[in-house]
Amino acid sequence: GAGVSQSPRYKVAKRGQDVALRCDPISGHVSLFWYQQALGQGPEFLTYFQNEAQLDKSGLPSDRFFAERPEGSVSTLKIQRTQQEDSAVYLCASSQGQGAWDEQFFGPGTRLTVL
Amino acid sequence: QKEVEQDPGPLSVPEGAIVSLNCTYSNSAFQYFMWYRQYSRKGPELLMYTYSSGNKEDGRFTAQVDKSSKYISLFIRDSQPSDSATYLCAMYKTSGSRLTFGEGTQLTVNP
After folding, report:
1. Is the per-residue pLDDT at A5 higher than 70?
2. Contacts of A53 (CB under 8 A, 6+ apart)
3. Nearest to B97 among A4, A48, A106 (CB)
4. CB–CB of B44 and A4 under 8 A?
5. A105: which chain B residues are within 8 Å (Cβ-Cβ)?
6. Helix (H/G/I), strand (E/B), else coil: B86
7. Residue A55: beta bridge partners?
8. Between vectors from CA B64 to CA B61 and to CA B69, what angle results, nearest 5°?
């Protein structure tokens, strides 16, 4: 694919359910980032991977949030026991280089609604 | 107080107008500055990337950085309806792995 893809595009969950959001970065990109974007707000950093290593997870809001990138390509963001405040768009971005300095290419996001 | 402040608008201008978008920041550790454009239900896309104080021009877009005032701007000349989107400033520190975004300014250019 030409760009970053995310699935599903929309997810509705009942409060307390677990959800898994998938990100397919651009092939060969070393860095992968997850952001949370609440309605009317800018993206907020969640976590950063360099290949398969999770180098920064300081933005994850609680221990209900977990991310992995086991083979250094596809990444999954998992949210356990979802709460209404988790409703947001979850954006994935990838970049060719290491760290935040390189241009990040964003996917279209997964819109999560928790009822 | 947020590290990066951006007026959310909304901002509505006629076609052909010059648009000025601004952000202020509080932490002098921010050294690299970017502007992203985000269309509805899409991910942000990079427009401009600057490091030093001064101006950088790319077509109809000019990015301006004033590190002494902790103030950055994006100017759009001859604005077009296709420029209607949310504009996000973003910045990061020399050490660290995160981009810090403003909350975005929603712009509408009316034909």
Report:
1. yes
2. none
3. A48
4. no
5. 45
6. strand
7. none
8. 155
Query: Mutate which of A31, A41, A89, A102 to test chain B, going by most B C-beta atoms within 10 A?
Result: A41
Instruction: Write the residue in B44, B49, B98 that is nearest to A45 by C-beta.
Output: B98
For residue A8, cis peptide bond before it (omega within 30 degrees of 0): yes
What values do phi and psi take at A88, rounded to 5?
180, 175
pLDDT band, very low/low/confident/very high, at B96 (cuts 50, 70, 90): confident
The number of CA neighbours under 13 Å toward the Cβ of B17 is 16
Instruction: Identify the band that residue A1 occupies on the pLDDT scale cut at 50, 70 and 90.
Output: low
Taking the CB of residue B54, how many other CB atoms lie within 10 A of it?
A: 11
CA distance B91 to B70: 11
Residue A102 has pLDDT above 90, yes or no: no
Residue of B41, B99, B101 to mutate when probing chain A, most A C-beta within 10 A: B99
